Automatic annotation (TrEMBL):
Organism: Vibrio maritimus
Keyword vocabulary terms for this entry: Lyase
Role: Catalyzes the formation of methylglyoxal from dihydroxyacetone phosphate.
Active site: residue positions: 71
Gene: mgsA
Designated name of the protein: Methylglyoxal synthase
GO cellular component, one term: cytosol
Protein's GO biological process: methylglyoxal biosynthetic process
Length: 151
């Protein structure tokens, strides 16, 4: 597929997601990075978003709970170019009933070439990057060109 360029704004749209066993870890990470996060637009799956908002006071747009379709809502925002980064504290050791949704979310983030952190170390690396506060151009699939070829 052909590629095109999408410009991420300096104020990023960031999704925050965590499996149940990793919610405390994500909360700790968000508290440690609260000052940086305040300068961005935050989204989360339902349970995670409500917990983070309550505990940190951050403004977070919460979707529905991940197992109820929240992972898919986040994925849809990514495919619409409305999210710039995904912080997903994923639990690789416990199977979850909505595992296909989780894999779909990670796949769509890769398709649309957005930065993804699935653990604390990677999230720290992303948040220490000087690109976090800058406009950034990324290559994404040129869906309009793809459709034009099909007509």
């Amino acid at each position: 597929m052909q590629k095109t360029i999408r410009t991420m704004p300096a104020h990023k749209h960031i999704a925050l997601v965590a499996h149940d066993h990793y919610k405390p870890e994500l909360l700790r990470w968000v508290q440690e990075n609260k000052e940086k996060l305040q300068g961005h637009f935050l989204y989360a799956t339902g349970t995670t978003g409500n917990m983070l908002s309550k505990e940190t006071g951050l403004a977070i747009k919460s979707m529905i709970s991940g197992p109820m379709g929240g992972d898919q809502q986040i994925g849809a925002l990514i495919s619409e170019g409305k999210l710039d980064m995904l912080i997903f504290f994923w639990d690789p050791l416990n199977a979850v009933p909505h595992d296909p949704d989780v894999k779909a979310l990670l796949r769509i983030a890769s398709v649309w070439n957005i930065p993804v952190a699935t653990n604390r170390a990677t999230a720290n690396f992303l948040f220490e990057s000087n690109l976090l506060e800058q406009e950034v151009e990324i290559e994404v699939p040129d869906y309009d060109a793809y459709l034009a070829e099909r007509i």
